[in-house]
Design goal:
By secondary structure, the protein is an alpha+beta fold. The longest helix has 16 residues. The chain has 3 helices and 6 strands.
Length: 173
């Protein structure tokens, strides 16, 4: 009786590297693209780096402003730094365009720094997904503008934007 050799622990995938399908899957329809965007918005509004990172491939490549990242561990570290500095973060994303496995969004978010200065960030992202619906590439261009607390428009409590809260276009942004 022959016994099959035991697999080396080094050849088994690490749990954090297992790719799980994240519907909706490409190619995207309009409805699917809008759903994918709202799912991303809700995850980012959780301010939970681990949760957000699971939407990306283990080797996902990012450009965020002038910073270049690769992989989930780098994404988590980046988001931990981001949300330690960008307090009371609230984000709205909106569809700009989509085709096949790509989605372009425009977004704005509001946050304040440790001194209490509020900002509104304006940006665009380009996303590319693999067949399992995980984002394998993200490119973000972002500009920040100082605002007074009275100029804020994103005033829901922490977490996902309520379903009845207007989006960017409805807010005239």
């Amino acid at each position: 009786m022959s016994v099959a050799p035991r697999a080396s622990i080094l050849t088994l995938p690490r749990l954090k590297d297992i790719m799980t399908a994240r519907p909706p899957l490409p190619p995207f329809t309009l409805e699917m693209a809008v759903q994918k965007i709202r799912m991303a918005e809700d995850a980012w509004n959780s301010c939970d780096p681990g949760r957000v990172s699971l939407a990306y491939t283990p080797d996902s490549r990012w450009r965020n402003r002038s910073e270049f990242l690769s992989g989930r561990a780098a994404i988590v570290a980046f988001l931990e730094r981001k949300w330690a500095q960008e307090l009371d973060y609230r984000l709205i994303k909106e569809l700009w365009a989509f085709h096949d496995n790509r989605i372009a969004v425009r977004f704005q978010y509001e946050c304040h720094d440790g001194s209490g200065q509020w900002y509104r960030a304006y940006g665009n992202e380009q996303w590319e997904f693999n067949a399992e619906g995980l984002m394998q590439r993200r490119e973000a261009s972002i500009n920040d503008v100082r605002i007074a607390e009275a100029e804020r428009k994103f005033r829901w409590s922490a977490g996902a934007r309520p379903a009845d809260h207007p989006g960017l276009s409805a807010l005239g942004l």
